[in-house]
Amino acid sequence: MLSFDSSLTDALTTHSTTAFWVLKLYYNDESSFYGVSDQDRIDGSDTYYGIVSSWGNLNQSLDFFNFTTSTRNMSVKLINTDNTIEGGRFSDLFSTNNFANRKWELFLNTNRAGTYDTAARMIGTGIISGDIKYDPKFITLTLLDKSSTYHKQLPTNVVDLATYPNAPEKNIDKPI
To answer: What is the pTM of this model?
Structure first.
């Protein structure tokens, strides 16, 4: 369960304000990033360009009985027209910087909650996939989630005949 800091919780509760996301897309050696959001936002010395057209869907699959899961991923669609970011297209940044397989971080915020990129407001982090789709109007990035590195693994004890000789056949090799 996500737990946010008190200033964000208070802003959402007492002021009936609207929440928004900001996304950091790191590049090259991951010491620098471009910030994007649904509209231009300034947070101290950080600029979040308002070029997000769609946040896309968060997808993940889970097969409980076979203990398998897919990596969660989310797509984000950015406006890629002339003069959208720093006098050019976002795809121009891709030709001069290496974004593929670099870190991303997603934060939930409100205008009343202060600094945007605190650890308490981070709701996702991962790696930017190398599968980048773009045309003259839009660029779509796939963001791969790596939060599974923070979660515990479930035990994989299964019903076997040696331990449970009277178990129904349909339960053999299924999780306990």
So the answer is: 0.71
